[in-house]
Hints:
The protein is mainly α and 140 residues long. Helices cover 71% and strands 0% of the residues. The protein is built from 4 helices and no strands. Helix 1 (7-24) packs across helix 3 and helix 1 runs antiparallel to helix 4. It is flat, with a radius of gyration of 18 Å.
Amino acid sequence: MTENITLAGVAARWSGAFFLLAAIYNPTGYSYYHWVVATDLRFWSFKIVAGIILFVFFALYFNASRRALRLPGLILVSVASALATFIFFPNPIDFDTPAPQFLVFLQIIVANVLAVGASWSYVRQNLSGQLDVNNINGGL
């Protein structure tokens, strides 16, 4: 059974990747990083479990992207994503306060790379008919 890639599927993968990155760190101060480095010494067991969960999800996304795109693809998608982001947001960095805008810019690029990597197997399957090992059913 083959699955078709849809814009909604790619958007869901991108949203998941961006939400994951924003949950790990974002410049608003409401992130896992800010929760851990707070001086509050309570809830360490929750902080550790949340960190493990975030790490596992990031490792899954990154491993899927690395396996699907490999190093040249990761570099190509990163450069294309940076160029596309500069086209859609011509002035992404306000030089009066550059850090927050630059971090969001980097998060968008990394979310693009993770979403393309997570979607690339479906694209390759639809273009070439080539299946991944995970998609092969029994009968061989």
